[in-house]
Amino acid sequence: MKIERITLRQLKMPLVHFFETSFSRTYARDIVIVEVQSEGLSGWGEITAGENPFYNEEWTQSAWMIARDYVAPRLVGKTLAAATDVDPLTRHIRGHNMARGGVEAAVWDLQARRNNNPLWKEIGGGAREEIPCGVSIGIQDTVPQLLEKIQTELDAGYQRIKMKIKPGWDVDVIRQVRERFPSIRLMADANSAYTLADADRLKALDDFYLMMIEQPLSHDDIIDHAQLQPKLDTPICLDECIRTSHHAEQAIRMKAGRIINIKLGRVGGFSEAIKLHDVCQNAGIPVWCGGMLEAGIGRAHNIALATLPNFTLPGDVSASKRYWSRDIIVPEVETTPNGTIVAKREAPGFGYDLDFDYMNHVTTRTETVG
After folding, report:
1. Which among 263, 275, 321, 344 is annotated as catalytic?
2. Closest of 48, 11, 13, 106 to residue 294, by C-alpha
3. For residue 297, which of 199, 246, 255, 345 sits 20 to 30 Å off, Cα-Cα?
């Protein structure tokens, strides 16, 4: 594939309901879409960085600059033997995995289209035709509001509920959730809101038989998680601190957690995500696909990723309508009444058509390299 040009588009898409984590509340997303062109074909990717450098050090503006000024110039004009060539050409860019990963995902999509393959087949997936889906519910204004949202998602068939927690919105809130929903599959996501000094408070969550507590400690920590996990009956799931397959190897050796969440952008794209998946599979550590409030392109890429065999737990890949009044793909992503998404779409690439009229309507800027 000779990479002829790379175009970035920034979209402004309002959420149907605000989404709050331990560090911020989001009402609308500024999303960067990547188009990689070669010999009349286009591959599409999505940079999953947030609007602010709160989840990690990346945000929309930094990702735009890194993709435009550093990633794209290292690819445009080059002839790639395969999408796996992107990682070694850009790895010396320190950090900025989401900017690198969004471009790399677009090249994988391009390669799949050139080979007339669906993306899931191109990455070696296809272990399941349907992927089990959960939902991530942000911190709400009141507990009754949270309970109502959980009921809505259960009525829609979702197989697992993830609720965001932070100090002051944790033990008592989860207790009320368990009183209302004693048998649902429930997990808590702390987004690094706690320290080892909170070990007793986190230990109290053992009473509620959670599937897991996700990333309770610092975003860049593995060592403290290794000290915390033996104190808890509840499995720790590592998220923000796992950016490479090597990080996963270290965490597994240290027994810092029993589950790992894989987010395509956080680890820099499909090449590293596949390596990380394989490391966890060989160690007997289950993984699931996390979400970053993606639009349709990123959501479709997550669906393809989740068809790899070790994605055995319900992920955060849910229907488009949970987040958007209108998505940028057609048809929009839908779930079955059983809380699954049919994954094995046979169309080349990520499997959906683009709604160019709507994408152009919500585009706020465009730049092309090449």
Report:
1. 263
2. 48
3. 246
- Residue 281, Cβ neighbours under 10 Å: how many? 16
Tokens (6 digits) for 314: 């319900």
Domain count, the chain: 2
Comparing C-alpha atoms, which of 284, 20, 252 is closest to residue 236? Answer: 252
Q: Are residues 216 and 291 in the same domain?
A: yes
Answer yes or no: pTM beyond 0.85.
yes
Catalytic residue, candidates 2, 78, 149, 164: 164
Q: Note whether residue 254 is domain-resident.
A: yes
Of 34, 36, 53, 37, which is closest to residue 96 (Cα–Cα)? 53
- Round to whole Å and give the CA distance between 264 and 260: 13
3-state class (DSSP) for residue 28: strand
- To the query of whether residue 166 is one of the catalytic residues in this protein, the response is no
Task: Give the residue numbers spanning the domain of 216.
Answer: 121-342
Q: 3-state DSSP call for residue 247?
A: helix
CB 287 within 8 A of CB 259: yes
Please write the tens of the pLDDT for every residue from 133-159: 999 999 999 999 999 999 999 999 999
What would the pLDDT profile of 275-287 be if each residue is shown by its tens digit?
Answer: 999 999 999 999 9
Whether 321 sits among the annotated catalytic residues: the reply is no
